[in-house]
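Collaborator request, handled under Task 6.
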Amino acid sequence: MRHLTQADYTRQAWKNGAGTTTEMLRIQTPAGLLLRLSRAAVVEDGPFSVFPGIARNLTVLSGPGFRLTGPGLDLRCDPLVPVAFPGDLPVVATETQGQQSDDFNVMTAVSLPAPEVILAQNDRLPAGGLLALYALGPVTVNGADVARSDLILTEGEALLQGDWPVIAARIFGLPPAEAGL
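C-alpha cells returned to the collaborator:
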C-alpha cells in the first residue's frame, strides 16, 4: 500500500493553458501516458484540453457541477457522480453558473480496459488491478489514518471505515510495479 499526501502532488498548467491542475499520480512509459490521477477546478464555461488516445473519467467533488458537450456528447457532471468521455473529443464545459466546481480526474490510455470509478464508504473493496482511493474527508484504509485529499494506492483488498466517502478508481492492465507499490 502506498500513501500519497498533498506534499507529493505537483501543480501544473492545463494543456490548453486555461487553468491549473494538481497531479497526484502519473504513470508514463516511453510509448506514452498510461494513467494520470489529478484534481482541477472548472471556474467558468470553456473548452477542455484534448488528449488523443486517452479515456477520461471525471467526478465533481464540490460546486454545482456543469455540462460537457461536444460532437455526439452531452453529459451533465453532477456532484459525486462519475462520468466517462473520450479524451480525444473537443468538449466544452457550460452551465457553470459562474461558480467553481472542483473535480477528480482519472485518465487512462485507451489501450487499457476502462477504469471502474465509484463512490465508496465503509466498504470492503476486493483486490484486483490497481485500486486508487481518493479521500473526501478523514477515513481509515486497512487501519491506517488517511486525511482529506490523500490518495491511497493498493493492489490488495481495502477496508474503508469512517464518516466520509472515497472515490475508488480501479485500473486494470498496468504493467507490474508501474505504480511503485
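The cover message to the collaborator said: "The chain has two domains: 9-109, 116-171. The domain at 9-109 is CATH 2.60.120.10 (Jelly Rolls). Please let us know whether this matches your experimental observations."
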